[in-house]
Amino acid sequence: MGYPLQLYHICAMLLYCGKSCNVQFNYDQVQFRHYKWPCLDFFLQNTIMILDGHERREESEMELYCGLKEVRLENIKEIKAGFFISHVSTSDDIQIAQMYRSHQGCILHFHPSMRRSNGIYNCDVEWISPFKHEREILFARSFISFIDDEKTHKEEYAWNAKVESEDEYTQMILLTWVKYDQYIQQTMQISAMWNHSIDLNLIYVLLFSYNGDVGRADRLLNLFQVWKNQMDNEQIYKKEKANL
After folding, report:
1. So which domain of life are we looking at (predicted)?
2. For position 137, which CATH number holds?
């Protein structure tokens, strides 16, 4: 099989995770000065996308956090279809986020759907980071495809955000994948109809395949149950599911 990364991919990851240049790099990114770091920006995004494709994230329940010092949303309670203008470091340890937030600022709370998304690219970089205690998950600057239209970008690559809680010192902002918000209610509705006996991933795939048609998804689940109860089909299903 070989290795999925080239040396230039590893160099880009090392520069971001372990060298002081990442401070200026991140600052320039949030100031929309991406042109100052074309190679690092390109190869870092490319590296994250490659590693994203090699990780098993589809059943991740990991809650992630990112602390932003002296940042606060004013007069805004909700953001629809947001995109990352820079690469974003996160940790499953909220104390790490609180450290980066410092005395005052905001903490981005990443719902597990952000990690599971197949359009919001991210990867585990603990293996290469010198700061092992941070258990860093790195999110790539949002991918823009010249093939897809605006609607596709907002559905596949975007996230929604809302203020979860706030006080004098900290504003907690919850980020969820757009598709999660789009399908979660329908998925849970069907799951309840089946007494929560059906894999939620299967329900989601059916809803996604048929544009949220609950009735059609329910009918297909009935057919699936009939098939699964025949002969050794349940074992075949479990085996195929484990191989995915």
Report:
1. Eukaryota
2. 3.90.176.10
